ADP-ribose pyrophosphatase YjhB (NUDIX family)
Amino acid sequence: MDYIRWIRSKVGHDRIFLNFSTAIVLNEEREVLLQMRGDKHAWGLPGGALELGESAEETVIREVYEETGLHIKVEYFQGVYTRYSDDYPNGDQAQPIAFVFVCSICGGTLSIDGEETLDLRFFPVTAAPPLFNQQQRDAFADFLHGRRGISR
């Protein structure tokens, strides 16, 4: 089931809560994997929406594989980021709730689908480009400062 399509068929473009799982994926050199997003044409952390019946951890594993081709292992829970707002190019509005996990790579091969993912690159954590929204910027800053168990 595509939860976002299903819920949007009922509420249209109105502002709603949407639950996401997001990954800070690190390679062996401790570089962070960023995704050039097709919807925003900007860099972001990989991840996506929870489907009904999924846990946040199951979602981050599934979404990272779908968006990057990589299998990941969750190393730890970074935090939950709730007090944000986002508007999408199609007119949808949301208050996104993001469960953020720090992850390592345990297999797979980088792959780009050309729609949801336009590019994938590893960046040194101290030289990553700006992320596409404040929620991701805050989560990444918390990671850089070693903060865990965040609830904003």
